[in-house]
């Protein structure tokens, strides 16, 4: 991942008003907590309570394991709505009011937005770097910026393909190794009135993941601001590919993965697969009558270029700026995300995504799955996938707005537009969005 400083995030000349507009509420503060003296840990024997806001269900059951072992540092988990469903606004409001929790669940792609409003503690000031080797390198890079660490990786979504072997076998097909082979299989399946997959035109996240796999780097930080390049050959290759797939009716755009219509098609044998993140396993297991009818394969690759896999989703345990106990919050976050007992509890009680720990995926994920045809798919597919991801991808400020812009462009596909045009349009609109918020940005020259 390309390193970026907060100065680069802010760019030259970004004022307080622009920071406030970015957050969508009153700015939490113009002075970074990271420019202030390090906060001393609690005194020996002093009892403190840390609060953690997250949208993970039953997180208190995990915290209680810690609490039993650390009587002087108790953790209280508070459920909040998902980030874009109100959770982030709640965090911004609390920060602006001078309060908020010690820890909060923040998606990796949202870290730069919180950095812009001075909302996060630089955990390197409290010893985070010494824990780096405990985590997957790619995920650690996603929270690391020059001179700082702004969140502890909590979960992620390495990608693979969930598929129904019996449907592949109707045309003598096997899991495609490349996207070109995927297109050939999709064409054969259409002859059986089966779609290989659906392509969501209302959600740009999967397209972003495919472009990342192809080697795209949409935004990178420079010394004088941000550099954008969404019309690079990697991205356009992916856009052209799916334009053609949609035009040739190889995929359906009439529903999105894991929607009611998707479940109905999958259960009826009208949809053969979904290329998705590891956390998709729990969702696929909700397909009626699906037990023993599904397996998992590596996602197709873009041939001789790009990477073996990609990632979709991922969140962190971040320490918010108003925490009075950042060192203790860091220690809990590292324990929660790397301790074997904690990881097993997160899987059991919270349905957490892929573990970021370098040495442990969770006991439950080492076992064969009856639903997935007795396959030990986590170790066979997703462990290798974590080592085959694009390490140079960088998230940027206003990521969610950027995704909304791209999704709006994709919807025009239904009325004759193209994904290629949507990407080019989105690039121009994102440049304007950056400038509107006082951020310096320029188009990379060919």
TrEMBL record:
Positions of transmembrane segments: none
Assigned keywords, A-Z: Cell membrane, Lipoprotein, Membrane, Palmitate, Signal
SUPFAM superfamilies cross-referenced by the UniProt entry: Periplasmic binding protein-like II
Extent of the signal sequence: 1-23
Top-rank lineage group of the source organism: Bacteria
Claim: Oxidoreductase is one of the keywords in the record: no
Keyword Cell membrane attributed: yes
Protein name: Carbohydrate ABC transporter substrate-binding protein (CUT1 family)
Organism lineage string: Bacteria, Bacillati, Actinomycetota, Actinomycetes, Micrococcales
């Amino acid at each position: 991942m390309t390193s970026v400083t907060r100065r680069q995030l802010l760019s030259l000349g970004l004022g307080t008003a622009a920071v406030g507009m970015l957050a969508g509420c009153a700015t939490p503060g113009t002075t970074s907590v990271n420019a202030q003296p390090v906060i001393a840990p609690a005194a020996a024997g002093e009892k403190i309570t840390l609060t953690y806001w997250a949208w993970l269900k039953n997180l208190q059951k995990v915290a209680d394991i810690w609490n039993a072992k650390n009587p002087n540092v108790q953790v209280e988990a508070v459920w909040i709505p998902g980030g874009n469903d109100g959770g982030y606004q709640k965090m911004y409001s609390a920060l602006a009011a001078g309060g908020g929790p010690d820890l909060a669940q923040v998606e990796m792609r949202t870290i730069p937005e919180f950095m812009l409003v001075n909302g996060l503690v630089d955990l390197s000031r409290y010893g985070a770097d010494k824990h780096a080797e405990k985590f997957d390198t790619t995920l650690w890079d996603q929270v690391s910026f020059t001179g700082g660490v702004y969140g502890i990786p909590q979960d992620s979504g390495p990608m693979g393909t969930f598929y129904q072997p019996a449907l592949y076998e109707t045309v003598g097909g096997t899991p495609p190794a490349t996207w070109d082979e995927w297109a050939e299989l999709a064409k054969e399946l259409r002859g059986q009135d089966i779609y290989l997959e659906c392509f969501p035109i209302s959600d740009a996240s999967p397209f972003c993941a495919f472009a990342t796999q192809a080697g795209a780097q949409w935004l990178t930080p420079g010394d004088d601001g941000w550099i954008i390049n969404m019309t690079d050959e990697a991205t356009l290759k992916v856009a052209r590919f799916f334009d053609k797939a949609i035009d040739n009716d190889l995929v359906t755009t009439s529903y999105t993965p894991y929607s009611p219509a998707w479940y109905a098609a999958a259960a009826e044998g009208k949809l053969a697969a979904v290329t998705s993140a590891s956390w998709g396993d729990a969702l696929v297991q909700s397909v009626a009558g699906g037990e023993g009818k599904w397996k998992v394969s590596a996602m197709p690759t873009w041939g001789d270029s790009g990477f073996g896999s990609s990632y979709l989703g991922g969140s962190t345990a971040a320490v918010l700026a108003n925490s009075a106990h950042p060192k203790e919050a860091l220690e809990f976050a590292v324990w929660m995300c790397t301790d074997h007992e904690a990881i097993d509890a997160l899987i059991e009680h919270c349905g957490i995504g892929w573990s970021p720990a370098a040495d442990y995926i969770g006991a439950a994920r080492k076992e064969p799955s009856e639903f997935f045809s007795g396959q030990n798919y986590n170790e066979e597919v997703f462990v290798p996938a974590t080592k085959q991801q694009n390490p140079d991808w960088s998230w940027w400020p206003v990521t969610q707005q950027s995704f909304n812009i791209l999704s709006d462009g994709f919807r025009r596909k239904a009325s004759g537009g193209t994904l290629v045009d949507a990407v080019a349009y989105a690039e121009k609109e994102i440049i304007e969005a950056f400038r509107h918020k006082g951020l310096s940005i320029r188009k990379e020259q060919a």
